[in-house]
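Example record

The entry below shows one chain as it appears in the dataset: sequence first, then structure tokens.
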Amino acid sequence: MKRFLLVAALAALPLCSAFASGDPEQFGTKYSAKANWKVMRGLHIIASEEVKLGSSFGFNKTTTTFGGTYKLNNYMKAGLAYSAIGVSKSSGLDWRHRATLSLTESWKYEQFHFSVKESFQATYRVKENMNTYQNPRTKLVFKTRAKASYKPVHSRFTPYAQAEIKLMLNGANWVSDDDVTYTFDGHNDLYFNRLRLQAGTEYRFNLQHAIEFFVHYDYLIDKDVDYSRTLGKLQTITITQYPYIGLGVGYLFSF
């Protein structure tokens, strides 16, 4: 097994190097560690730390999360979590605070496990003198994820595939009747922000320790609003659409 993990890591290096020389916005890697504590039947407390690196393996973002899940019945689980997020900027770390409420429906068929997870996120940005004509201080997002996994008999591996849609619920909205003069209409712009396709596998060493490898492809749609507070008017609205590929490895400890 150690040989397999070493081969997998070495196989990923050429892919990393290939993307590292390209657009830094189109490739990245993630590294995470998570602890899952079963407090009582149906109730779990979760803590995790995730670090994201850019295409040149420079620091991009850190996310520290504390939360819990409670199993409502055999098919449904509710979750609540808080995350402290530090995003690398030229001036230092740009901090955000995020609250996530989720509901997961799941069912099994033989060795297959299927689930649908719906999440609502509110992310507050701490930055002072923030230009709210460009972005809301508290960003609201809704995500829907469908996942299928397969657990072979007598195997430590659990391969999976999933798809996720992300919607921006309160983007800065500028309206115009003549496409020349624009007026700020509040934070009520709703638009599709990301489609993510992900595949990976979990390898469980024993009941306590597991490791996960995954790759994901994102199709991103970003809306960049440039409003000049000095001039008091909208400069440009730019919508960009681009792909993003990420590789990740995570460690899970259960107790």
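Notes for this example: Residues 1-24 have pLDDT under 50 and may be disordered. Residues 2-20 form the longest helix (19 residues).
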